[in-house]
Structure formats: structure tokens, C-alpha cells
Design a protein that fits this description.
The structure holds three protein chains of three kinds. By secondary structure, chain A is α/β, with parallel strands linked by helices. Chain A has helices at 2-24, 47-61, 79-87, 100-108, 142-151, 167-178, 193-202, 217-221, 267-282, 284-293, 302-323; strands at residues 35-40, 67-72, 94-99, 119-134, 158-160, 188-190, 208-212, 225-230, 254-261, 296-301. In chain A, strands 1, 2, 3, 4, 5, 6, 7, 8, 9 and 10 form a ten-stranded mixed sheet that branches. The termini of chain C are far apart. At the B-C interface, helix 3, helix 4, helix 5, helix 6 and helix 7 of B face helix 5, helix 7, strand 2, helix 8 and helix 15 of C.
Chain lengths: 326, 173, 510
């Protein structure tokens, strides 16, 4: 009897120890650089997730890489995933999909690791924000809006699709600063994503909204929304609105997404990753994905991205410090 | 509450009124919430009469008030009725050994999952829990645990693409 | 009758063999994955997104619709059988569904849930066809003060689930509110009760709280008092609903959509609050009030129909406004964008065939779901016949996988354990579990809407009452409050107020 028990226990142990490696060896991550893991620091369906999955699929379709594995590690505005990336020091087969939102989250969450600890690989895309009002809004131009805003910042409420520290929060704060309005006096109302904000703008609950242009194209075309300005440096095709600079507000602001790798990877690993994303940028599959998703190409590899990241970090830190959030 | 003070604080007395412990926990929780709320700076970013502090303060005060009311109820002889159920035999005294074994199985999984991987730690959880609850079939239990754990691992990791740690040998073949 | 013609064309699209097969596949996959721990419908749709890459858009969305409804149904299956809700919409179904299953009426509970899903889904989808443009316009007008008024109403409704001892019910509610406070403040981004931990910055998910309080707490409690008599397996009753079950269920099935559909359609509506309101409404209206919490079939039928109708409501604002009101809708929106389609006011014109094909396939998916799941109900229910040690070991295993798989983080297991121990203590001292769950759901939502409303009015308190809708809701609240209060005033000289209820002796039930 005892022997039977031992045989069962040993059998069970054999099963749990041996079966998983046998089944996963094909998709193994240590095999070669032909495989890559992509960490997504927010939930499935979120912005970084879609970018990561689209990029992974384009790489595989273009046969730049044999195997990519996209996995989600959401939490605290992306800083949980960032912490993990920083802890994977030296791992040359991992990248994290990220963007401007993570920069602010590091401050609002008082996260121990910063994006400056990571190895920048590439900036991929940009999405400008728009300053938008409902069809029935009294404001016809940005100038009218700014005048009313300066006169009464409390009642001229601004809605955004991100929590404090996120892109939609930073944009109106930068605008306020540029027009001589103390950011602390701005009455910013955070909504749970661009969708919920859209309802508030359409329903006239907030005086104006600031959010990414992507989700709103249809409503703009249908005439339900009026765009007073775009935050990018140049006008946007299909959106009949001036840039902030053209309207006399000296601010240029874009939400962006890119990829970073863990710190301490070898130069060879870094070069390979930068090359991989540079190659991705050249593929027709990626071009097609850009048009399909309405993303603006904003490719910047390696060091160029690193310099940009430092600049953005300083800019975000300055705004949040003004507000007491950093 | 006066009558309570006069009674001797004997073990039996406390045992009878162990629900006072719930009051104590509620007070502790309330104090924790209040201290945390006071720590929040509201000199910036707050607009209007209700800032990030207001609701925690209401909740914290509420916890303390409810704790006091509960204590009063207990001292007056009120008792929370333990929950019954199909599998629960309230006439038997609490079986702490089983509870601790079960907690052990659960925490073992949490502690080991990152070290030895999910297939092993999950099997330990299942077998440990079954053992704690009185199953003593040393052939069927481990095999069932191993089978369930590996099947779950394969389903999540290989078929659905939700990665679970596979264990020390992953990548050796 | 334009919609009607379009719908007929939609059926023509959806009823082709390929699309029918895709719908069936979606329903099966959705149910199978929805049953898995930690994977709700949003996750199911997200995970299966790649499967559909090869399909043309119409086929892909027909499959999605199947996955969505299948996933929701799968979630309530585990909720009823194992007391481990897979997603927030099925938390309420566990309250009475699980006791039913424990009494050997698991197949009835599952059947009530399945038919509830079917009825709620069909009514919801019919409303979607008839009312989509109207509802969409209305949804935009609902703002923060209106939400807050609804929350106040919901808090009043909580008093009817506090249990026999009010003070213990309030203690439980406050524990729930405390758990709800954890995380970054949504309005100002400041940390509350996070103790500097990033893991707590997003707060504690209501599903984790529900699984911990229900499943882990229950397992520990059973362990402490396990009935050691020779194991009588849980009996599995006749396969189907009896006459009495039908009599008690049909009204909740029909009432559910009335609550669920509008909530689904409005932004920030979701399914948690309407399912809870449906539960409370059914309890108030039922002749079997004392059975609630112990296996009342109305407590499963109503909330499940509500959840399903709310899913249909979600599609209204997603298709007509491009407004994702739930996580699933957000994932589906992303899927639409993958195909270069932007849902919004122009969708019905631009992609008419696709939209109506999708709507028709919702009807088909619901029918398939019912056909597949009714016969399966008794089979699932037999799951509970396995010996107790395996059953509870399985529940703990299941709960752990669910908590871990989502974030791959041991911290979540520890949170679950701590709240599970709390659930154990609450059971020991007769603190009802339900108010705590309600506190976690309502607390953060109510606070956010109240503060948003006040901020919109720049701090003026009138901001809370400046819409007709809010005033109507407050009117209802006042009537509800005054009625029993007046009643009591004549009987007892000291009317209990919200904050200091007269402690009552717990004698009847817990």
C-alpha cells in the first residue's frame, strides 16, 4: 500500500515538473533573438495594448521575427509594468509598450522607478489632442474660449479623458500656463476615458473638452462637435481647425507611444532591438496599420527617442510640480 | 455600558463577548482611515467643498460610531448569529487545525508560485486543501491535484496566451 | 419600419451557414472561457480577438457577439455553482444562486439564469432596435448630478439588505466603503490607503473582493465547522424548472430589462449597480422575502435578466455614439478600429449591413446560448456532487488562479487572503457579506459623481440638484424615506436615523 502511495506522489511530481517544460519548449523565450516578449502595462484593449499587438502582428507578418508574445501587466497607470521592466535588468528579449501617460503616472503614483532608468528603443506614433466643444457651445474660436476661461476659470470647466497626470490633463494645464492662467485655478474634471468625456461634451456638461482626436473623428464629421484647435505643430488632415500656435497660444503638445527595454542590456542587444523597430517602421504592414488606426507616424529610434523622453519627462515634471502633484 | 465595568474581566466573560474584538477591529480601521485622510494635502487641486479628504473622514467616523454601537449591543447581550449552511455544523466547536491547514495551503501557493512555478504550487494548494478538509486518499489526491494543475497551466499558458510561471525546468529542453 | 427591413436583411446576413457557425463557435468559446477563473467577458473578447483576425468584419463581429453573451453566461455559471463570480455583473447572482445550488437546486438556478439571460438579452436587443437613436440622445443628457441621485437611491436601497441586525449590517457596509477608498483618488490623483504600494494604487477590484468574501471566506468558515457526518452528496434535483419556479421567475425576468437596459446605455452605467437594484427590487416585491440570501430563485432570475439587458444597452451607446460604457465595449470598440471602422453617429449609415448583421446575430446568439445551456444546466450542477474536500479545494484553487492570472502578481493572492479572512470573521460574528460588496461597488462611484457634480458647478451645492432628472430621483428617495419613518414615528418616539440605528437583537436570520 505504501509503495502505491509513493508511486502516486512521484508520478504526480513528474507530471507537474516535466509536462509544462515539454509543452512550452516550442514557444520558449530563451531560444534566440528571433523571439521577443512585449510587456503591456495596461489592460487588454487599452492604447498601449493595441499598439503592442498591432506592432507584434506586423513584425510577424513581415517575417522580421518568428515569435512575439504580448502580455499584460496592468496597474497604477503603467508603473507596475515599468517596475517590472526595470527589474528585468539585462534582459535583451523584452520590451515594454508605453507612452506619455506613463511619464505622468510615475509622478502621481510616486513610483520608485522612472522611465529614465529604462533603455529607450523607439518612439512609434503620435496622436495630437484637440480642444473641442459641443455643437451648441457659445464658443466659436479658441480666442473666445480663452477670454472666457481667463475671466472665470471656475465656471469654464474643462474635461479630459485621463486622470490627473495623464495626457488630457497635461494639455489644458500647458495651455493655461501659456495664456497666463495659473494651472491651479483650472477646473479640470477627469473622466474615465475619451468615451465618457465625449458624452459630457456632447451633453454640454463641461465647457470644453481636451482629448485625443482618434475617438472623435466621426462626431466631428457629423457636425456634433466643433474643434477649436488642434495641439499638434501642423494642422490635421480632415479636421477644420487651426493649431494652437496659429491661434496665438504658444504650445505644441502630442500624445505619443513608443517602446523601451530594460536597463543594462548589452549594446548588441540594444542595437538589435532598435534595428527591429526600424525595420518594422519600413514595412507595408506597419504603414497599413497606421492608416487603419488613424495614427500619425512619429518614428524616432534609440538616442533620438532617449533625448525626447528626457525632455518630456522634464516638461511633465514641471507642470505637475506647479500643481503640487509631483 | 456601566453594568459591564463592574463585572470581572475573566476569561469566560471575554470569551462570551469575543465579538467585542470586532468592535476593536472597526475602531482600529476607523482610526487608520482617519489618520490616512488627515495626511492628504488639500491645499492644491481641490475645488469646491468636497475634496479627497471628505469621504474618508465620513467613513472613518462612521466606523468608530458603528464600533461603539456594536460594543453597546454586545454588552447588552446581543450576539451576531454565526452563519449556517449546508456544510456547516455549528454545534461542533471551531476546528482551528483545519482552518490553519487550509490557510497554509493557500499561502503556500502564494509563496511558491514565483519560485517553483504554477503547476507545482497549484498542485500543492489543491492537495493541501483537500488534505486539510479530511481527504486521505494518497493515490487519488496527488494525481488529481497534479492533473488539475497541469491542465489549468496548459489551458491558460498555451491555449489562451495568459502566461503563468511554468517552473524551474521550463526552457531546459 | 425602416429598421425592421434592415433587421430582416441583417437576418439574411447572419443566417448564412458560415455566419451561423461563427455565432455558434463564439457562444461555445465564450461560455467555455467565461467559466474560467479570472476571465470575464472583457478578457474573453480580448483574448479571442486574434482568432478573428482572418475573418471579414461581419463574421468577426458576429463571433464577438457570441463570445460576449457566452462569456457573460459562463461568468454566472461559476458564480452560482462555486460562489466565485467571474466578473462584476454576476456578483449578485451568487448571493442566492449559490445557496440554491447548495440545496441541490443548482440546475434550477442555472436554468433561471439561462432563461433570464435569454429574456433580458432579447428584450434588450429589441429595445436596441427600436430605441437606439432616442436612447443615445437621452444618454448624453445624463450627467454627474443624475448619477449621484441614483447612487443616493441605491444607498437607501441598501438598507433592505442589511440583515437582521442593523448595526452589523452597517458595520459590513462601512468595511466595504473602506475597501472602496483604497487607491488613487480619481479626481485629484492623490493616494488614499495605499501605504505607498503601487499594487494598491488602482484600488481593489470588486471581483477580487467578491471572490475573497464569498469563496475564500466560505471555504475557511466551512473548514472550521465542517459537518463530519458521513458525506451526503449534494442532491441534484429534477432537471428543469418546476411550475412554482416558473411562477416565481417570470416577472423578475421581465422586470430585469427595465432596470438593466437604461443603465447599460448611459455612460458609466455598467452592470453592477443595476443588478444590485434589481435584486433589491425583487426582494421588496417578493412574497418570499425571508428566502432571500438563502436561495430565492427571484434573486437569480431578476439580476441575470438585468445583466443581459444591460449588455444590450451597452451596445446602444457603443454603436450610435462610439461610447464604450463597459470594459467589454471598450475592447469591442478597439476591435472595430482594427477593421478601420469607427463606431459613432455615422456607423448605421456607413456600415449598415455590418451593424444589422451584428444585431441579428445577437438574437441568434441568444437562442443558441439558450439551446446549448439549458440541457447543460443539470450536467454542470452535478459538479457539486464531488466530495466536499475536493469541492472546497477546487474552489480555493479556482479562486487563486483567477486572482493570479489577471496580473501575474502574488500580491493579489495576499489581498484575496486577507479579505478572505475578513469574510471568515464576518461569518463568525453574523456580519452579512452583501452590504460590504455593495459598499465596494457604490462607494467609489457615488463619491466620484458627487465630486464631479460639485466641480462642474464650481463648488456650488446647487450642482447636485440642478437637473430635473435628479430632482425626480430625490423625490422618490424622500417618499421612500418618509414612508416608514412616519410609520415608526407613531409607534416609537425615537426614529432611527441613518448614522445611528437602534441595535436590534439578531434573532430571525443573518
Amino acid at each position: 500500500m505504501r509503495i502505491r502511495n509513493w508511486v502516486a506522489v512521484v508520478g504526480a511530481l513528474a507530471v507537474v515538473v516535466l509536462v509544462p517544460p515539454l509543452l512550452t519548449s516550442g514557444a520558449d523565450t530563451t531560444a534566440s533573438l528571433r523571439s521577443l516578449r512585449v510587456l503591456v502595462p495596461n489592460a487588454p484593449g487599452g492604447g498601449y495594448d493595441i499598439t503592442a499587438r498591432t506592432a507584434a502582428k506586423a513584425m510577424e507578418d513581415a517575417e522580421l521575427i518568428r515569435n512575439t508574445e504580448v502580455f499584460n501587466l496592468p496597474g497604477a497607470g503603467g508603473t507596475v509594468g515599468l517596475g517590472r521592466t526595470v527589474n528585468e535588468r539585462g534582459n535583451g528579449k523584452l520590451v515594454m509598450s508605453m507612452g506619455l501617460g506613463v511619464v505622468g503616472s510615475v509622478y502621481t503614483n510616486k513610483a520608485p522607478s522612472s522611465l529614465l532608468d529604462t533603455t529607450p528603443i523607439a518612439k512609434l506614433i503620435e496622436e495630437p489632442d484637440i480642444v473641442v466643444v459641443g455643437r451648441d457651445s457659445p464658443y466659436r474660436t479658441l480666442d473666445e474660449l480663452v477670454r472666457a476661461w481667463r475671466a472665470n476659470p471656475g465656471e469654464v470647466t474643462v474635461g479630459g479623458g485621463s486622470s490627473p497626470g495623464g495626457p488630457d490633463h497635461l494639455a489644458p494645464m500647458l495651455i493655461a500656463k501659456a495664456v497666463g492662467l495659473d494651472p491651479r485655478r483650472v477646473n479640470y474634471i477627469p473622466y474615465d476615458g475619451g468615451g465618457e468625456l465625449l458624452a459630457s461634451v456632447l451633453g454640454g456638461k463641461v465647457a470644453f473638452g481636451v482629448s485625443g482626436v482618434g475617438e472623435y473623428r466621426d462626431q466631428i464629421e457629423a457636425g456634433q462637435l466643433r474643434v477649436l484647435a488642434v495641439t499638434s505643430g501642423a494642422r490635421l488632415p480632415g479636421v477644420d481647425a487651426p493649431t494652437l500656435r496659429e491661434s496665438g497660444v504658444d504650445v505644441e503638445f502630442n500624445n505619443w507611444r513608443g517602446v523601451v527595454a530594460p536597463p543594462g542590456i548589452t549594446d548588441a542587444d540594444r542595437a538589435r532591438l532598435v534595428d527591429l523597430f526600424t525595420d518594422l517602421h519600413g514595412t507595408p504592414q506597419w504603414r497599413e496599420a497606421l492608416t487603419r488606426n488613424g495614427w500619425t507616424d512619429a518614428f524616432a529610434p534609440g538616442d533620438e527617442f532617449g533625448a525626447f523622453l528626457r525632455e518630456e519627462n522634464d516638461r511633465v515634471a514641471a507642470v505637475l510640480k506647479d500643481l503640487g502633484l509631483a | 455600558m456601566h453594568e459591564a465595568v463592574n463585572k470581572p474581566l475573566s476569561r469566560a466573560w471575554l470569551r462570551e463577548r469575543s465579538e467585542l474584538g470586532v468592535s476593536a477591529v472597526l475602531v482600529a480601521l476607523g482610526v487608520l482611515v482617519l489618520v490616512d485622510a488627515i495626511r492628504i494635502h488639500t491645499d492644491f487641486a481641490q475645488r469646491g467643498p468636497v475634496g479627497p479628504k471628505a469621504v474618508p473622514i465620513v467613513v472613518g467616523v462612521g466606523l468608530i460610531v458603528v464600533a461603539a454601537l456594536l460594543a453597546r449591543d454586545v454588552l447588552r447581550g446581543g450576539r451576531g448569529e454565526a452563519e449556517g449552511g449546508e456544510d456547516v455544523d455549528l454545534s461542533a466547536p471551531a476546528d482551528w487545525r483545519t482552518v490553519l491547514l487550509l490557510c497554509g495551503a493557500f499561502l503556500a501557493n502564494a509563496a511558491l508560485i514565483g519560485v517553483v512555478g504554477f503547476p507545482i504550487s497549484g498542485a500543492i494548494l489543491f492537495w493541501g486543501a483537500a488534505y486539510a478538509l479530511g481527504s486521505r486518499d494518497f493515490v487519488r489526491d496527488p494525481l488529481l491535484a497534479a492533473g488539475l494543475s497541469v491542465a489549468t497551466f496548459v489551458l491558460f499558458n498555451n491555449l489562451l496566451g495568459v502566461p503563468l510561471p511554468g517552473g524551474p525546468l521550463v526552457g531546459m529542453f | 419600419m425602416d429598421s425592421f427591413n434592415n433587421l430582416l436583411e441583417g437576418f439574411a446576413t447572419a443566417l448564412t451557414p458560415t455566419h451561423l457557425a461563427l455565432a455558434a463557435l463564439g457562444v461555445l468559446l465564450g461560455t467555455a472561457i467565461g467559466v474560467l477563473p479570472g476571465i470575464g467577458p472583457a478578457m474573453a473578447v480580448a483574448l479571442l480577438l486574434p482568432v478573428t483576425y482572418g475573418l471579414e468584419p461581419t463574421g468577426a463581429f458576429i463571433m464577438f457577439a457570441g463570445i460576449y453573451y457566452g462569456g457573460m453566461f459562463g461568468g454566472s455559471t461559476t458564480s452560482i455553482l462555486l460562489n466565485t463570480p467571474g466578473e462584476s455583473a454576476s456578483v449578485v447572482a451568487a448571493i442566492d444562486g449559490n445557496p440554491m445550488a447548495r440545496k441541490g437546486r443548482g440546475s434550477q438556478a442555472l436554468a433561471a439564469a439561462a432563461i433570464g439571460h435569454f429574456v433580458g438579452g432579447i428584450i434588450g436587443t429589441v429595445l436596441l432596435v427600436l430605441l437606439a437613436p432616442t436612447v443615445a440622445k437621452f444618454a448624453v443628457d445624463i450627467g454627474a448630478p443624475d448619477f449621484f441621485a441614483i447612487m443616493v437611491l441605491a444607498f437607501i436601497a441598501v438598507t433592505s439588505v442589511l440583515g437582521a441586525s442593523r448595526v452589523r449590517g452597517f458595520a459590513s457596509l462601512l468595511i466595504g466603503l473602506t475597501i472602496g477608498l483604497v487607491g488613487l483618488d480619481e479626481m485629484t490623483g492623490q493616494q488614499r490607503l495605499t501605504f505607498g504600494s503601487l499594487h494598491l494604487a488602482d484600488g481593489i477590484d470588486v471581483v477580487v473582493v467578491a471572490v475573497a468574501l464569498f469563496a475564500v471566506g466560505e471555504s475557511l468558515w466551512v473548514a472550521a465547522h465542517l459537518r463530519r457526518k458521513p458525506g451526503r452528496p449534494i442532491p441534484v434535483d429534477r432537471a428543469f424548472l418546476g411550475r412554482e419556479d416558473w411562477r416565481r421567475s417570470w416577472k423578475p425576468w421581465l422586470r430585469g430589462p427595465v432596470i438593466g437596459f437604461p443603465f447599460g446605455a448611459i455612460p458609466a452605467g455598467g452592470a453592477e449597480i443595476p443588478t444590485f437594484l434589481s435584486y433589491v427590487a425583487e426582494k421588496r416585491l417578493s412574497k418570499h422575502r425571508e428566502e432571500f440570501g438563502k436561495g430565492a430563485i427571484e434573486g437569480v432570475a431578476g439580476p441575470e435578466a438585468t445583466a443581459s439587458a444591460s449588455a444590450a444597452g451597452t451596445l446602444v451607446s457603443m454603436l450610435t455614439l462610439g461610447l464604450p460604457t463597459t470594459a467589454v465595449a471598450a475592447v469591442m470598440l478597439a476591435a472595430f478600429q482594427q477593421y478601420g471602422i469607427q463606431p459613432g453617429p455615422l456607423l448605421f449609415e456607413r456600415e449598415s449591413a455590418l451593424v444589422w448583421g451584428l444585431i441579428a446575430s445577437l438574437f441568434i446568439g441568444l437562442c443558441l446560448l439558450l439551446v446549448l445551456n439549458l440541457p447543460l444546466a443539470p450536467v454542470w450542477a452535478k459538479l457539486l456532487r464531488i466530495p466536499r474536500p475536493y469541492l472546497y479545494a477546487g474552489i480555493l484553487f479556482f479562486a487563486s488562479v483567477g486572482a493570479y492570472a489577471v496580473n501575474a502578481d502574488v500580491f493579489d493572492l495576499l489581498v484575496m487572503f486577507v479579505i478572505g479572512v475578513l469574510g471568515f470573521v464576518m461569518r463568525r460574528y453574523g456580519l452579512p457579506v452583501l452590504p460590504a460588496i455593495i459598499g465596494v461597488i457604490l462607494g467609489p462611484a457615488a463619491e466620484q459623481q458627487m465630486r464631479r457634480a460639485l466641480q462642474l458647478s464650481d463648488g456650488s451645492l446647487t450642482g447636485l440638484v440642478n437637473t430635473p432628472f435628479a430632482l425626480v430621483v430625490y423625490g422618490i428617495v424622500v417618499v421612500l424615506l418618509l414612508w416608514p419613518l412616519l410609520h415608526r414615528l407613531f409607534r416609537k418616539p425615537t426614529p432611527p436615523t441613518e448614522a445611528s440605528p437602534e441595535p436590534e437583537r439578531p434573532k430571525v436570520d443573518a
